[in-house]
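[stage:ingest] chain + small molecule (2-acetamido-2-deoxy-beta-D-glucopyranose)
[stage:ingest] validated
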Amino acid sequence: MVSLQKVIFFLWLFAKVGVLPDDRLNAAVGGTMIFTTTMSPTEKPFSSVNWSFNVSTPIIIFVINAENIIGPEYEGRITFFPSTASLELRSLTLDDTGEYTVNAVHDGTLLNGRTTLVIHEKVSSVLVNSSSTDLVEFSGSVSLSCSASGPSLSFLWLNGSSEVTASDRVQLTDGGSSLTIITVTRFDQGPFRCRVSNPVSTVISDPVNLSINGPENMDLISSPPQGYFAVGSDISLTCSVGSRPPAHFKWFLNGDQLPDTGSELRLMDVQMSQSGNYSCQAFNTGKKVFSSFLTC
Ligand SMILES: *[C@@H]1O[C@H](CO)[C@@H](O)[C@H](O)[C@H]1NC(C)=O
Ligand SMILES: *[C@@H]1O[C@H](CO)[C@@H](O)[C@H](O)[C@H]1NC(C)=O
Ligand SMILES: *[C@@H]1O[C@H](CO)[C@@H](O)[C@H](O)[C@H]1NC(C)=O
Ligand SMILES: *[C@@H]1O[C@H](CO)[C@@H](O)[C@H](O)[C@H]1NC(C)=O
Ligand SMILES: *[C@@H]1O[C@H](CO)[C@@H](O)[C@H](O)[C@H]1NC(C)=O
Ligand SMILES: *[C@@H]1O[C@H](CO)[C@@H](O)[C@H](O)[C@H]1NC(C)=O
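[stage:predict] done
[stage:export] tokens:
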């Protein structure tokens, strides 16, 4: 019968285990951790409480008869909350990673709990490097790579304010730290930012803008519509183009540059001498495109 009593006693002990959360706790170097027990606040003091770290190492705090005995390494770094036997630990260092145990006796009942704390460095030095920032639309790919310091990093890319997802055109590699756009279009100007997280912090990189060059879909239209114009009529030529960044324009008559620079060229009261091959050149940093037609 003695052994049965023992078994019941240990079952009872086992049932009392767990006044601390089971899951692993994470905190940052330099931060603060509060080990909050699940005990409800009590008026009647605990007969004794002891908090210890990594079993074999010295105690953190031992409370008996309302007297606190604090381990020398913990002097000035802890606050003990007598009503719940909870503990605050400050100025955390990597050496504080380990197992924390509390044993408390209250009203003749032994309560204990155990939890694991992991201290992490915060994320730092987040940098984005681009294979190129000056690109020509549809003519190739661009890779952005994100680097950062710190443990347990996870990466995410932002395009403007939305998250970048992988697709036929977009590859995410190296654990998400590299972003490759296979065929760049003018809509891929960004700004792109890399968001790096670990269990204790998140850092977002500076934005990277891509300059996608190349006026495309160029069109030169006349008003009245293209054809032969009567001497003395007014003609307006408009050069239209889809371009980012916006294009600048140059106008030519039979290959000679005209002073005009806008997207529209106005010819008032045209004379025979103005007959010829008018062309518009639209350009931005990367690429030039021609379009032309004849007038008479
Ligand atoms: C405490 O224990 C953990 C493993 O539970 C170990 O990684 C850590 O180095 C120990 N810390 C100290 C200071 O002994
Ligand atoms: C902490 O409490 C437990 C349970 O009461 C006891 O076994 C252990 O010896 C105590 N440790 C210290 C350092 O007082
Ligand atoms: C950025 O990437 C380019 C090309 O991939 C490489 O040559 C350069 O060294 C990288 N710069 C840094 C700071 O990593
Ligand atoms: C970036 O966002 C723009 C506009 O929302 C979209 O058209 C483009 O495809 C996106 N590019 C990438 C690489 O996600
Ligand atoms: C990137 O583009 C945004 C708008 O899209 C602009 O506000 C920002 O100044 C640009 N940054 C750089 C470095 O060019
Ligand atoms: C008009 O000028 C453009 C640009 O110089 C040239 O490519 C085109 O062949 C010319 N057209 C005619 C009909 O001369």
